[in-house]
């Protein structure tokens, strides 16, 4: 979740930037009114570029520059994409979304444009869109994506979601005692035995609590009752997860299903389980967008299309993410969202209210 000054600087830059051309380009299926961007051979007026036309234009560009926090997490995606589309390399710019956004806006102020695809959580994506840093592009593959994940502004393409359920240590919580609903966490037997990441400012627990507070059958009354359970609150999610695995407490909130998959990839025997409560689960939508003045716009569009294709989404599932495309199987039960109720979807709509929520959580969980 970005800081207010990041958004302010992005919006200010957006007001200074002139609008840049560049039509939308279709992938394997037609997208009305789209064509290969300048630099490749343009499609006929009003026609859509085929996937082959887009690939040929992308090969002439030869590269995609995109951002990621950990390049190892995308190794399978890079290998699969470059085998599918030889002649196009992917260059990663490493860093958190907010840090990369700051760098890109600073570069743009000096008319330096090196980045093709920006990808991050909803708050940084929203800031880049509001600043006019992104070129509207809607992949034709969106026809296969759950409608509630599609950007109404037609600028950002969804990539995957982070899901937040209830995480338990299976050695300490036998199957017949598992909390099956959010209300089950209020059982007196769990008092003092629940851990969670500090919800103030940003992170999975902020998303979780916002979602629970907005769900009318639970609401703020539920949040206060949860606080009365005297949860242990720590700053670092990974440290808390390590403590959960070692048995220091039986239940944890605020860890994403993808983080559990990472833990199990490192050690399949770790005694952790993700429970998706009956009321539903909060999710955070991760997106990607085509940068204005991208030096490799056709390769960028090809990458965005592939990420939403059946193959691309299956790769994301194998990497431990929760795909947004309908009917994509994943090898990890933790990240499966097919048939799972959506309690709250964070698309950046509550960014302006984060200071208010931070104060609420401070009053409820920290002030005695």
CATH architecture of the largest domain: 3-Layer(aba) Sandwich
Q: In CATH terms, what is the fold-level topology of the largest domain? A: D-Maltodextrin-Binding Protein, domain 2
Tell me which oligomeric state these chains represent.
single chain
Taking the sheet with the most strands, its summary is: 6 strands, mixed
CATH superfamily of the largest domain: Periplasmic binding protein-like II
Protein architecture, described:
The protein is of the alpha/beta class. It has two domains: 4-159 and 284-331, Periplasmic binding protein-like II (D-Maltodextrin-Binding Protein, domain 2, 3-Layer(aba) Sandwich), CATH 3.40.190.10; 163-283 and 349-365, 3-Layer(aba) Sandwich (D-Maltodextrin-Binding Protein, domain 2). The chain is built from twelve helices and 13 strands. The protein has helices at 4-16, 51-61, 75-84, 97-109, 122-130, 204-214, 219-227, 237-246, 257-266, 297-308, 310-318, 354-365, and strands at residues 63-68, 89-94, 117-120, 134-135, 157-163, 166-169, 194-197, 232-234, 251-253, 272-275, 281-291, 322-323, 342-346. Strands 3, 4, 5, 11, 12 and 13 form a six-stranded mixed sheet that branches. The model is unreliable at 1-34 and 41-47 (pLDDT under 50).
Task: Give the key terms.
368 residues; alpha/beta; D-Maltodextrin-Binding Protein, domain 2; 2 domains; six-stranded mixed β-sheet; five-stranded mixed β-sheet; 13 strands; 17% strand; globular
Question: How do you describe this structure in short?
Answer:
The protein contains twelve helices and 13 strands.
């Amino acid at each position: 979740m970005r800081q207010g000054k990041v958004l302010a600087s992005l919006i200010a830059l957006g007001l200074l930037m002139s609008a840049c051309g560049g039509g939308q380009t279709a992938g394997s299926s037609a997208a009305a009114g789209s064509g290969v961007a300048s630099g490749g051979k343009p499609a006929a007026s009003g026609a859509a570029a085929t996937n082959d036309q887009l690939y040929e234009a992308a090969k002439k560009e030869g590269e995609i520059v995109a951002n990621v926090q950990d390049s190892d997490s995308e190794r399978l995606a890079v290998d699969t994409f470059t085998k599918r589309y030889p002649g196009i390399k992917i260059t990663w710019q490493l860093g958190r979304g907010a840090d990369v956004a700051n760098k890109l806006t600073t570069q743009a102020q000096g008319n330096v444009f090196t980045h093709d695809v920006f990808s991050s959580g909803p708050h940084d994506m929203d800031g880049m869109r509001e600043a006019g840093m992104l070129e509207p592009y809607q992949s034709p593959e969106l026809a296969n994506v759950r409608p509630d994940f599609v950007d109404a502004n037609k600028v950002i393409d969804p990539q995957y979601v982070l899901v937040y359920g209830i995480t338990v240590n299976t050695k300490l919580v036998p199957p017949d005692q598992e909390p099956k609903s959010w209300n089950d966490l209020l059982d007196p037997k769990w008092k003092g035995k629940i851990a969670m990441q500090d919800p103030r400012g940003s992170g999975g627990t902020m998303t979780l609590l916002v979602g629970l507070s907005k769900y009318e059958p639970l609401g703020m009354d539920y949040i206060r009752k949860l606080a009365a359970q005297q949860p242990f609150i720590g700053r670092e999610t990974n440290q808390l997860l390590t403590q959960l695995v070692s048995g220091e407490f039986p239940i944890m909130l605020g860890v994403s299903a993808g983080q559990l998959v990472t833990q199990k990839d490192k050690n399949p025997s770790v005694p952790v389980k993700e429970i998706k409560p009956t009321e539903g689960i909060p999710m955070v939508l991760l997106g990607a967008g085509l940068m204005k003045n991208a030096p490799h716009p056709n390769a960028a569009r090809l990458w965005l299309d592939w990420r939403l294709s059946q193959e691309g989404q299956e790769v994301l599932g194998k990497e431990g993410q929760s795909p947004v495309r309908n009917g994509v199987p994943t090898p990890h039960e933790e990240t499966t969202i097919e048939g799972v109720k959506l309690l709250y979807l964070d698309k950046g709509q509550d960014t302006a209210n984060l200071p208010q929520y931070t104060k609420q959580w401070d009053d409820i969980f920290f002030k005695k």
